[in-house]
UniProtKB/TrEMBL annotation:
Protein name as it appears in the record: Ser/Thr-rich protein T10 in DGCR region
Pfam families from the UniProt entry: TANGO2
Protein's organism: Striga asiatica
Domain of life: Eukaryota
InterPro entries with a match to the protein in the record: TANGO2
Amino acid sequence: MCIAVFMWKSHPVYPLILLLNRDELYNRPTEPLGWWEDGGILGGRDVQAGGTWLACTKHGKLAFLTNVREIRSDSQVKSRGELPIRFLKVAPSCLVIFSKFRFCGSLDLSETNFSSGCDFRFFSFFRKDLLQVMMHESWVSLQGTKSPREFAEELVGEADQFHGFNLIVADLRSMTMVYVTNRPKGGVHVTEVSSGIHVLSNAQLDTPWPKAVRLRHSFEDVVEKFFNSEISLKDITEILMKDTTKDDGNELPGIYPPELEYQLSAIFVETDTAMGRYGTRSTSAFVLKTNREVSFYETYLENDEWKEQTTSFHIEEVES
């Protein structure tokens, strides 16, 4: 299900402090935090569907996702985990796309510059199936060139093709962040995230579910304690995100059966379901400093053992 708490543009040292617990079946294949094959995306990955719940790029784009708690009615929908990838995807030139395929014959592209775009009529002599794959890859990748608002507004038109989701996308160079959900109280719309502390659980942003309120208050206390000093990512995740306290049944949403609602009311979830053991599989901490240095920490469960790693980098400018 996941829960995230973050402070946005309200700290003198850290413009962004983000903590996120990912809840999932223990037997669902997952890759831990790392740079993906092309080196463009940093994050964990759901092996089964290929998506992610939290990831970023070296150019300062960030996306994270939670599910909306609901009774599912249609299994024939797109994977929500693809949404962060579509925002983060780095747009390749046509030459990069070409390098992924083998063609009969040859084509001299040495005198042609495709960096500003592609005209696929140029490639009409290629096999149709390969051309379709190339065009899809280019379309998905070009989504990665959009601003957070542009991407989210474009997503509104297909929001009903997914189970309930909460998606936050941000550009850490321009310091813009937007939120979109396909389960709003009104029509689907895009909201700019205001500065301050926010909690994203399995309802709309800042919905005061008991564990969300508890996490917010705890986060406020910890941030105040470390307001003018360095924050230990390991310590802050241990203090805030390992809380197994459960809430009184009368305060819970009542969407699932009472016992399951009770188990899910903890910030750190551990429970058994008909499909197997379920709970918090990983905890992530993502911080951005004013000098554009990013630190991305993850502690994750692998073969019944908790492991951890941290990756740090400076945000790079986008090459023109």
